[in-house]
Design brief:
Chain A is of the alpha+beta class and 126 residues long. Helix content of chain A is 17%, strand content 36%. Classes of the chains: A alpha+beta (126), B alpha+beta (365).
Chain lengths: 126, 365
């Protein structure tokens, strides 16, 4: 299973991709496959504050409900509203169309504490 | 070390994702829970249910033993008939739900995998305490059991097994021969669809699925493998109880809506308590709930009416057939009326729901 090298990860399966001072967050293919068919994604509102290593939302599948964690602190600048009508995008394209939130960060190197693709892959035992 | 069913290699060859279920390594899904669910409702699925306990009881005291432990009267049961029944403790709590089948020379009790050791011990204890003349043997690991479920199954399996399955009544069973091996085919299941369950020797089961597996791997195959994930969403739509969720040792069959499977006129373990509950009416009842919105209630979610806690969810899912969030819950009897509005606490946020009749889904006859 591929884990993109162009982003960094939490052991709880969220990916983080940085562009300038904006970090985009979603969950990995491993997590999406584990959850199975996703039925609902609860995201914060634009303008909400998220804290590093705190829950920012919830994800539900036919199997289970899980919290979603952010590896960075900041302000939510965008949420993927497509997921309201089509939460299955997280299953079909977790690293692309299944993205969840964009967070504006103040830290110059916001992903420094997060896992590399390789370390994430190892930690999750795949 | 997890136990493996005789069909383990078949699961792997079909790309199954395996999980630990009651000490067995079982397929949770092959392609996706929702896809397998829909395949079952529209055509057919094959489920490995070899993990379920299969206990044989023989001897002159077998009927007396079964009548003592089962909520249903077995003395009226004929050869070739199966019956759903409960096994209760003296307080009327459910030790297990089982299917009991009368064969010419033995009785078969099919129990839940998670309760197999407990039920075996219980049967032996009752036999010894009452000095019934009966032999008890656990055949679980020398046989395999598969369920084929869905609207296409009866015709296809009739042809494949050269057997007139249509002539077998629901909850009836017959023996047949496949590749010189005997099997027993039951017209029953746990999905809300028509279909069959088959018990066969381990070796024959492997040959059976091997000859079918090439065919079943095709996307347009009428019968494809399905895992425990779909089995759970299917049984929930069909309003069927699952041990550990709707049924536990602290729940009685009257409250669970299973009075039809309890014969209060005969003597069995738990009957005194169940007569009292039936006489007074149960304090809590199992109901179906439809939730407003897409969120799913899970086992343990609190059911409320205003600020009062009135019940607890036992199972919930997003129904693939109805495209609706559904749940089963025990609620106080006075709230257990059709159309009653309630709220469900989903990890802190409140979802509106209403009480609906069970089952959620009923197949067209």
């Amino acid at each position: 299973m591929s884990v993109p090298q162009d982003r960094k990860y939490l052991e709880s399966h969220e990916w983080h991709q940085v562009a300038g001072d904006i970090v985009t967050i979603g969950i990995t293919q491993i997590a999406a496959d584990e959850l199975t068919d996703i039925t609902y994604v609860k995201l914060p509102s634009v303008g909400a504050k998220v804290a590093a290593n705190a829950a920012f939302g919830e994800i539900e599948s036919v199997k289970t409900t899980s919290d979603l964690y952010s590896g960075v602190g900041g302000t939510v600048t965008a949420i993927n509203t497509e997921l309201n009508n089509n939460p299955g995008l997280v299953n079909s394209d977790p690293f692309g169309k299944g993205w969840m939130i964009k967070v504006k960060v103040s830290d110059a190197n916001p992903l420094a504490m997060l896992l590399s693709a390789e370390d994430y892959f190892k930690k999750t035992g795949h | 070390m997890l136990k493996r069913t005789p069909l383990h290699d078949f699961h792997i060859s079909c790309g199954a994702k395996m999980v630990d279920f009651a000490g067995w390594e079982m397929p949770i899904l092959y392609r996706g829970i929702v896809e397998e669910h829909q395949q079952t409702r529209t055509s057919g699925s094959l489920f490995d249910v070899s993990h379920m306990g299969r206990i044989h009881i023989t001897g002159p005291g077998a009927v007396k033993l079964l009548d003592k432990i089962l909520t249903r009267n077995v003395s009226q049961q004929r050869v070739g008939q199966s019956r759903y029944s409960l096994v209760c403790n003296p307080a009327g709590g459910v030790l297990d739900d089982v299917i009991v089948s009368k064969n010419p020379k033995h009785w078969l009790v099919v129990c839940n995998a998670s309760n197999r050791d407990k039920i075996l011990r219980h049967i032996i204890e009752v036999r010894d305490a009452c000095e019934f003349d009966a032999e008890i043997s656990d055949r679980t690991e020398s046989t395999a059991m598969v369920a084929a479920q869905g609207p296409a199954v009866v015709d296809l399996m009739s042809e494949a097994l050269d057997m007139d399955i249509k002539s077998i009544k629901r909850y009836g069973f017959e023996s047949g021969t496949y590749m010189m091996s005997r099997f027993t085919l039951f017209r029953s299941g746990y999905t809300g669809e028509d279909g069959v369950e088959i018990i066969v020797s381990s070796g024959t089961a492997q040959n059976m699925v091997k000859s079918l597996s090439g065919e079943m791997s095709k996307p347009d195959a009428p019968i494809r493998p399905a895992g425990l994930g779909a089995r759970d969403t299917l049984r929930l739509e069909a309003g069927m109880s699952l041990y550990g969720h709707e049924l536990t040792e602290s729940v009685d069959p009257i409250s669970a809506g299973l009075s039809w499977a309890v014969d209060l006129g005969k003597d069995f373990i738990g009957v005194e308590q169940l007569r009292v509950i039936a006489g007074n009416g149960p304090a809590k009842k199992l109901v179906g709930l439809e939730l407003r919105g897409p969120r799913i209630a899970r086992q343990g979610s609190t059911v409320k009416s205003g600020s009062a806690q009135i019940g607890e969810v036992t199972s919930g899912t997003f129904s693939p057939t109805l495209q609706q969030s559904i749940a089963m819950a025990y609620v106080d009897a006075r709230h257990a009326t059709e159309g009653q509005s309630v709220e469900i606490d989903l990890r802190g946020s409140i979802a509106a729901a209403r009480v609906v009749p069970l089952p959620f889904y009923k197949r067209a006859k």
